[in-house]
Amino acid sequence: MAQQSGGAFTRRTFIGVAGGVAASTLLAACSRAGGNGGSGGGGGAKSAKFWNMPWGSDAFLAEDKRIVAAYKPDSGLPSFTYQQIQWANFTQTFQSAVASNTNPAVSSGGGTQAFQFAAQGKIAYADDLFDSWEGDLKDDFLDGLLDTMKTDDGYAAIPYNLDVRCSWYNKTLMEEAGATPPTTWDEYLETCAKLKAKGYYGFGLGSGAGSFTGSHILTGFMINNGGGIFNDKLEPDLVTPENEEAIDFILELVHKGYSDPNSATYTSANVQSQWKAKKFAFGWDGAGLPANVGPVAPDLVVGEPLKSRSGKQGFLYFPNNIMMYKNTPSQKGSEAFLTYYYKNMKTLWTKKTGIGLPPLKSIANTPEVSGDSNNKTILDKWNPIYHTWGAPGTSGLFANVAYTVDGTQPMITFTQSILGGKVKAADALKTLQNQIEPLMKK
Amino acid sequence: MSTESVTRSLQRARNGVGVGGGGAPVRQRRNKALNHGTTFFFFALPSLFLLLLLNLYPVIYAGFQSVHNGDLIDPGDFIGLHNYLTVLQTADFWRAARFTVIFTIVGVFGSWAIGLGIALLLRTKIPANPVFKVLLLLPWVVPTVVSATAWNWLVATPQAPLPVIAKAIGFGDVSFLGDPLAAQVLVCIFKVWISFPFMMMMLSSALAAVDTNVYEASRVDGAGTWQTFTRITLPMISRTTYVSWILMTIFCVNDFPTIYLLTGGGPVNATQSLVVMAYQTVFANQQVGPGVAIAFIMTIVLVIVSVVLYRQIRKASIE
Known about the structure:
Chain B: InterPro entries: MetI-like, MetI-like_sf. With about 450 residues, chain A is α/β, with parallel strands linked by helices. Chain A has 18 helices and 11 strands.
């Protein structure tokens, strides 16, 4: 009797309520899983999600949020909410979201993700958007930039910023060591020797947990020597004389003690702390390096592209982009948002938020961008020699870049083995070739 | 009473009926028991349903992925046990398995030895004992991401505190994260440091349950400290010890953040355990089938190890 003294709440009632709660939970879970592109639900007004990466300093996040918050959609089109996605494990974040249909309507991300998702049928091609930008924004893109987004089925994404890899040096430390900025590989060795004599590292970079910059730099040196990863059949072709010579040169830098012995495991934060600690006097990084090194930032200067021993120039860059997903509350809404965003994103550069170089000529020509001597060096001297991951086979990008080299474990392992200095160039390249071949997808 | 009637009475007793009981009450009680069983089943049904949905479905789907050649979006074609065979034939798998075994052995027995030592120490009359207990728990309580960042700061660069100390005491330039062997040692030490408070807590409670009269009796019989420790303390806490070993083995084999946050499995995969390898195979190399196959192989081995240790617990209980 005591069990039933709780009034009307009987065992049957409990079972019924519990079953109802379970069913509601299940239905809610299914509803969320089946939801699209960040539909906010709730009433008639839908909202969609815009995911962006931390392309610059904290100022970038604040300014980017402000731009998105100021977007007022036309009647019937969704508003957009903003979310920043961290670089750590970003491929997992995006893949999981796309696989579970919880992806945003619009996002930036890794430079090759759009091509991967396009191959998987998840991308809304930007051809219609570019048609609507004809005579306006479309003509404003830097020369040749749109072509890097082109696939057989259409434009996989819209160029957003140029994430470049280039050399940097601390002018004060260089002067102290009596070194001059190098223009060739052999001059670079001389510079490193002078820096080493003063206790500074001349080949500063990192390839630790979650840091892919080291693998970018090694690929950059291969491209510098006329080599690279993919041939014109878009297949990995690493064991070439050009690549071997480039990696031999890197090994020479390592063996002579010009690189930090710990660099194989340096995270981005470790690399930045070495610049701040004035241990790195010359190194290789992205255009946003000064934004992350605090007091030494005014001393940092972009070096000139080096000529390899065979007299060639070249390096690696990532035409980062913004992609639209098929899974969206409204394709027209995605396009309207991007039109607004591209017409209003100028302040991300003019307010010096640390984002890479702009994709639009109108922004590149502003005094804030072109007046910065480092930006000018990159735009004038590095930009003409840059290649994508597809070099030397192609100037564009394709899905297998994402599957094989962009942020993959074999690239990290290869870079760490070279920076460890205990391998031969030919063997390391052959190992890398053997490891990335099985990752290719048809 | 004849043998037959005794057997009948025992059978009735097993059925919950008194020796002198009649037929009608038996049916009533059986019905009541059945009703109770049905009620409990329905009570448990919502939870069982959610449990199956949340646990069983992912496992079944992962099993499905492990015998297919697709990715996270497209499951691809059925390829049987090809992923398992491929994984087992790679040298990388066996290198990761070897490190996982070393990492687990050091993690389990290192943390157990230190945890037991401190638990015994805390039984003595130390001033501010509770404060020490709280402080000693910190490595376990602090999120791994914070600990890993702190350890990275301690060792990553040549001018970090530990390399400076190592150089000052004559070890030369030690690259704690850059040298493969040093990185392996460091990761194992980090694991022991994170895990010993758990062992300390488990063993402290086991030690508290040991009857002090046993110690007094052993002293009267002339047992020394070492004899008391090996003949009384260790056997008396053996059940807890085996349980803690099982749990710590599972924690170590499945430990992803400790390794990934400190070294990312590097340098050159030197600290790549099987769980880190599974993660990197799925999410960095986008090879879902082989990655999930690694995880399944790990699970099978872990279950076998757990069963062996569980049998030891039963044996210890019987003894």
